[in-house]
Design goal:
heterodimer; A: two-stranded antiparallel sheet; disordered N terminus; B: alpha+beta; 6-stranded antiparallel sheet; two-stranded parallel sheet
Amino acid sequence: MSTEKMEKEPLFSAKNIKLLTGPVNMNNPITVQVLGICSALAVTAKMKPALVMALAVMIVTGFSNLVISLLRNGIPPRIRIIVQLVVVAALVILVDQILKAFVYDVSKQLSVFVGLIITNCIIMGRLEAFAMGNKPWPSFLDGIGNGLGYGLILLIVAFFRELFGSGTILGYEVVPQSLYHAGYENNGMMILPPMALITVGVIIWVQRYYNRELLEDK
Amino acid sequence: MYSNGYIFRYAAILVVLAAAFLSLASVLLKPFQERNKAIDKMEGILSAARVEGVNANNAIPYFDKYIVDEQVVNAKGEVVNSYTQNQKDKAQAFNLDMKVELYNKAHNKPFQLPVYIAEKEGQKIYIFPMRGTGLWGAIWGNIALSSDLNTVIGVYFGDASETPGLGGEIKSDKFKDQFIGKKIFDNEGKFTSIEVVKGGIQKLPAGDRIHGVDALSGATLTSNGVNDMLKNVLGIYLPYIEKNR
């Protein structure tokens, strides 16, 4: 790898910072690239699983980008997708095993969805679009940034779904009992996946209202 | 360009490396995972007996303190193994897999089932593990009966993949607390199980309400699963229960 070139550019140069923050808003994987929607619907009924899922995806995007970028000059193009899959799958299995060993209760809640990170389009998308053609450090930042953008949307969706669906935030009761006595009820619809899709839709709407350059040409 | 030989070598080395890496991780993490599973099982058993204040950190000492006997029961309800010593997770009963045993039962093969006996405030409590199917996947649980083997002390449920907020609510206290004080035998001593009633137990005749609980709204199939699991598994334990009543 070209370490000399790395030294010329500071680790957190403006360009690298942009790799980290770009996907959080203007190039968000969920709301702008519209990738990784399926898992965003599945794990956002409560905030705690959403938080762990976001961390798991961030770790996998970051490190798979790093590994693929390190290998990028030796990977035969004809089997590059398979190589990417092997790296991603190995990392996902590792994350799953670690969750089972150290945060068992969360791992129980997430069940199959950790394994399904393998099929998360964001990861393969970033590997193909970025890590295959960029140096390890920017690739790592790009992966972490995309993980952050994904996690942010997950947490926003989970916040509203848990608040209106269960009356709690991270498991703590926030809707006062007096409100229930007055006739307020949790909205069971919020727990179901379709409302996650609608919530994502509202987020996309709000984001595009404030960032007009994201609007498609008519 | 890369030659075919290079591609094959590259793929082979990569796969072997990934496999070695994952095997190593699996071997290193296994003891932690096994321990978590055992602790989770203990928490479920103690939770059914309504032992207060159990968490992942103190489950093992609590289990040692409250569980006085771990029995293995055969199809005729006879106790074939009893473990009263201190290393409770080493007991034969504790290591029986309900999935395997119920599969054997369904295929007319010999099977054995675990029964846990707890002592809480001088009272003897029988705890029976259960397993069945919900809407999306497996559901399981424990039911604790008092020393008369009729009155329910408490229950515990778990699921693999029921819908959060609907079927997943079988894990909520609101659902579980309904079972407390219910009876699995009627006045004539006939086994009734505990019915999970769609539309609520008000639909039952007044005398039968002691054998029923309200189903979860929006989760009919999971509720039916719980109903069938109770009926089926308690039915299998029936010879043991009848013998000790």
